[in-house]
Amino acid sequence: MSRIRRLVYVHLIPPVTERGFSSLSVVTAPLDFTEIQISRLPTVVILGRPNVGKSALFNRLIRRREALVYNTPDDHVTRDIREGLAKLADLRFRVLDSAGLEAEATSASILHRTASITAHVLAKSHFALFLTDARAGLHPLDLQVGKWLRKHAPQIKPIVAMNKSESLFDATGSLASAANEMCRLGFGDPIAISAETGLGMHDLYMSLKPLLEDYMLRVFTEGARENSHNEVEDSSDLDVDKSKLPLQLAIVGRPNVGKSTLLNALLQEDRVLVGPEAGLTRDSIRTQFEFQGRTIYLVDTAGWLQRTKQEKGAASLSIMQSRKSLLRAHIIALVLDAEEIINARRSMKHAEVVIARRAVEEGRGLVVIVNKMDLLRGKHKSSSYEKVMEVVPQEIQTIIPQVTGIPVVFISALEGRGRTTVLNQVIDTYEKWCSRLPTARLNRWLQKVMSRHSWKDQAAQPKVKYFTQVKARPPTFVAFVRGKTQLSDTDIRFLTKSLKEDFDLGGIPIRIMQRSVTKKDASGSGNSKNSHSVCRVVERTVSDKRSIVDE
Fold first, then answer.
1. pTM
2. At what angle do helices 382-399 and 350-361 cross, to 10 degrees?
3. Structural contact between residues 199 and 191, judged by C-beta atoms closer than 8 angstroms
4. How confident is the model at residue 37 (pLDDT cuts 50, 70, 90)?
5. Residue range 247-306+323-434, CATH number
6. H helices within 503-551, ranges in order?
7. Regarding predicted confidence, which is higher, 383 or 171?
8. What pLDDT score does 382 carry?
9. 8 A C-beta contact, residue 332 and residue 252
10. Which CATH code of 3.40.220.10, 3.40.190.10, 3.40.50.300, 3.30.470.20 fits the domain covering 38-69+77-222?
11. pLDDT of residue 432
12. By the 8 A CB rule, do 45 and 128 touch?
């Protein structure tokens, strides 16, 4: 595939006349998909009946194992739409992994709801890959999917791909027989591929290449004037503000607390499957959207449960994927159920305490979201509503004393209330998490704060030479202490609390390290390699690590 290159492409340049952009001139130039903005790339959705290898092909195209792949003939692993950036040789396009389609699914069933979401996404897509199983041959469900596709997307002619074809490449002619059978779908000649081994990716490349190039040609034709007009503005934005970099937000919590409903409310569209059934979400769904000029990558995770030895299959993979999503995120949105808080008479159960403490231990920002507040409204529940608003922030601070000022937002995701409040709070926490303080300002602060601290033994008071921030995300500081006397754990806690109060850094973990310097180092003489300085890291982030050990 690396030897396949484009020969001639069309690039549109609008010439400037006295009255502006009057016409378009056409010149030949290479078209590099890697230089096109992701938002402008074409979208290709992978469709097919259940268990034909759609998620495996999705992972092959994005070159990562993100979608769950598990052989479950009696169950459907994929239930939501997963989006990724496909990299097929020099082609780039957005690819969507969809749930298996069954035309005979009963109304209001999970399969019927997933089909509705797929139809909604298909209407916004540009191309489709119709995946079938070459080893099983033409299945009656394949014909039903073809009929469903003609009904919901008559403007799209899909590319039919026979997956699992690696065993049919022999001299018996079985591959040709399977291809002839797939022609009955009425979408043209199929291509033989194997998502597991990568066989047939060259043929897939050759099938997609002219379609994607024609699409980009139309995009350039329609937007040439506007893009050329904005070239001056785009070229001025060379300096990137780190606080405006894409934000990674993970929505975590126990099953059936409304995580997927919250994601749909934030996106303002039915993006993922929701319902009264617990455990609907299996994949960690990652999607992107814009809010107030900021790009936010949003991840909806499966319900957080303790992984047991009896837990196997797709459920076990979902638990592992949820934990990986927590480690990749910048900000963790921990979702609680307001009704369960009233019934259980406590704000957080063990699993939720584990999530919060692990987020703090990994240095992530934490925002607590109390969902389903609409269930506590009414004449007979007004006292419960007020009680939750008052008690939850206090209990959370008691349970997680390592981080003060954890923000708590009360919403109703089902009604769409609190969307703007949640996003503003997340962005505020993220900016604190990325904040950097000048060394001069920190040392002026240090002189004031050390003078008001009550030392037990004034003679043994540590002499802090200076205080500086060495990194952000989360904010990490180093206190250079003169002599052998070290700051105690009480002193570290005092400095941490003072930092959060004086610089408004509540709700995020702060790490303070201390380094001992000798008089020789303090005077600036001598070689640093020969100095006897001692570095000791002191982190007050987790009080009980035994509670987060996997069982």
1. 0.74
2. 50
3. no
4. confident
5. 3.40.50.300
6. 519-522
7. 383
8. 78
9. yes
10. 3.40.50.300
11. 94
12. yes
